[in-house]
Amino acid sequence: MSTEHQTETPMVEIRNVHKRFGDLEVLKGINLTVNRGKIISIIGPSGSGKSTLLRSVNQLEVIDQGEILLDGIQVNRPDKKGLAFERHINHIRQNMGMVFQHFNLFPHLSTIDNVTLAPRKLKGMDKNVARELGMELLDRVGLAEKAEVFPNWLSGGQKQRVAIARALAMQPKVMLFDEATSALDPELVEEVNRVMRGLAEEHMTMLIVTHEMGFARDVSDWAMFMDGGVVVEEGTPDKLFSDPDQERTRNFLSKHLGDHH
Amino acid sequence: MDFNLMVEVTPLLIKAAWVTIDISARGLLFGFFVACGLVFLQSFRFAPIRWFARGYISVVRGTPYFVQLLLVFYGGPSIGLKLDPFTCGVVVGAFNIGAYMSEAIRGSIESVDKGQAEAARSLGFGKVHTMVSVVLPQAAALMIRSVGVLAIVLVKNSSLVSIISVVELTYQAQRLIGSTYKPLEIFTLSALMYIVIVYAVMGIIELAYRRATRYTTQ
Amino acid sequence: MEFDFGPVITYFPTLLKGLGVGFLVALVVAFMSIVGGLLVAVISIYINKVVSWPLRFFIWLFMTTPLLLQLYFLYFGLGEWILIPAILVGILGLGFHYMAYNADIFIATIKSVSDGQYEASRSLGFGHGATIFYIIVPQAFIRAIPQLGNNMILMVKDTSVLSAIGVAELVYASQYAISVTFRPFEFFIVIATLYYLINIFMELGQAWLERQTAYRR
């Protein structure tokens, strides 16, 4: 819903990001700039650090070194501790939408309440206004008729569409997709992809971690291949997917292209 | 079986059963507060406070309830703690069951999928808000079941306060057996009353559980 | 307030004697309740309904009513017919109580093993009885160990309740000493400490036993 079209201003900047889990360094100095309205796909084998990078962007993982900026504001703040950091990060996160592999819908709330919980509680939005917004978003993901249904009654694809609507309800500046279709049965992948394509057409800034090579190639403006905590190669999708420079990229693609299609 | 005797003593036993219910209900209520306090203490950053809570839970669970009751009732006055038998039963029952209940509550909170908290946090909810709006409502269902089991333990534990002469169901049963020499009749009646109480508790739990899980069962 | 643990030290031999009685009772009860519980479970699952119904009723009754009430019933009930020492009543009462709890566990683990294992065993040529005896029961027993351990830890704590019917275990043994020294606080603190230590040892033992049998579960 960020409709500004000027493309050459950065929305997300990732600068020299390092992350360690104990002795294991999973991110070894990652740099990436996502410009306004652009869509970046990150691909790579499991354990490559791509999900950790995405989770670092909204600080579900706290990075050890480097900087992450959202629309010019620093996200990670090693200088802030305890409650001060809490207040800061909660505010920042309201501007980022995150979509998880396992949907993580709130099972105790109806679909519409899942979508409107955050705007109501965090923005103090009036109940009726929030409901109107929620219905509009559910309509956009094609699930308006499921508003009063609880998540356990929904299929995986429907759940993920609701999860996208939930993230959109906070009118985020950027959407983060963490393998949004990996847990879905093959026949349910397309309905989620369709919703994501719709967002792309509206110039939503998106950072997508995915296993779907075909989708990544179609939808993104820029693609990045990660392995072993480093960026092995990046470029336009056409270049990366059809004529990669690196041996590792070629190997990975030869194993995964056509996996799902 | 001497049915005339059974009819005769029933009112006495019903009256005593009310004391059992009373003492258990109060114990459960205060025990819940104790449990919440213990869960809260264990969330502190300052380690000694956490150790205190862990230590308390370990000691209470590692010693017999009966000994705890005797310690507080007979030993309490030496440290300036004079409680009448009924209050003593409620207080010791609450502090005892609270230790078990805090573990049950903690377990049910931990059983909620971590992704739930992550999703809430990613939307910008703070820790407390996440706990109240997202985690606790989901933990509630499991909590109801495990607290329910403890409520039944509490009812059965309450029979031990007969030793400090609270006139509850077991006390009355023992006295009547002693005076009538009809153990089978008295046991049948008093056992029946315990069974009714236990099943009532189980029924309430089941209803509450169904309410709390409406959204998960198709 | 000032504490004086001198009397506790003076009467410590008495306490130790009580501890010994409690230990003996616990040992017999553990044996009786585990073996009995297993028997009750096997019979109530595999033998005809006429036998199994009363057994299920027994399990249910002992699990829904308090131990102390059961003890009083046995104490006065048996006392009507025969002259029986308190310690025997205590062993029987505690034994039946935990026999019911253990049987409840065994019924669950036997059923969980039976699914699949029973047919597999019969297909090898084992008979009905041989299947139960050689295949089902050993596995069900190993699966029951963690919960049996919990029950036995509870049972040891419950030996204290036997003082109510005059079994000369730890709590009962201290009663005389308390009545002459007027030091209930000190005595009960020491008793609680002793129980706590026993409990720690039992939990360590249980953890060890679970580790030893984990690979068979």
From TrEMBL, chain B:
Annotated GO biological process: amino acid transport
GO molecular function terms listed in the Swiss-Prot or TrEMBL record: transmembrane transporter activity
GO cellular component: ATP-binding cassette (ABC) transporter complex
InterPro entries to which the protein is assigned, alphabetical: AA_ABC_transptr_permease_3TM, ArtM/GltK/GlnP/TcyL/YhdX-like, MetI-like, MetI-like_sf
Domain ABC transmembrane type-1: 17-205
Subcellular location: Cell inner membrane; Cell membrane
Pfam families (UniProt xref): BPD_transp_1 (PF00528)
CDD domains linked to this entry: TM_PBP2
Transmembrane region(s): 12-41, 147-167, 187-209
PROSITE patterns: ABC_TM1
Keyword entries, A-Z: Amino-acid transport, Cell membrane, Membrane, Transmembrane, Transmembrane helix, Transport
Family in the record: Belongs to the binding-protein-dependent transport system permease family. HisMQ subfamily.
Protein name stated in the entry: Nickel transporter
Organism annotation: Marinobacter guineae
Automatic annotation (TrEMBL), chain C:
Residue span, ABC transmembrane type-1 domain: 19-206
Keyword Membrane: yes
InterPro entries, sorted: AA_ABC_transptr_permease_3TM, ArtM/GltK/GlnP/TcyL/YhdX-like, MetI-like, MetI-like_sf
Topology with respect to the bilayer: Multi-pass membrane protein
Residues passing through the membrane, by range: 20-45, 57-75, 81-101, 161-182, 188-209
Keywords from the UniProt entry: Amino-acid transport, Cell membrane, Membrane, Transmembrane, Transmembrane helix, Transport
Primary location recorded for the protein, binned into one broad class: membrane
Localization in the cell: Cell inner membrane; Cell membrane
GO terms for cellular component: ATP-binding cassette (ABC) transporter complex
An example Gene Ontology molecular-function term: transmembrane transporter activity
GO terms (BP aspect): amino acid transport
Family designation: Belongs to the binding-protein-dependent transport system permease family. HisMQ subfamily.
Cited PANTHER family: L-CYSTINE TRANSPORT SYSTEM PERMEASE PROTEIN TCYL, MEMBRANE COMPONENT OF AMINO ACID ABC TRANSPORTER
Protein name in UniProt: Amino acid ABC transporter permease
Record lineage: Bacteria, Pseudomonadati, Pseudomonadota, Gammaproteobacteria, Pseudomonadales
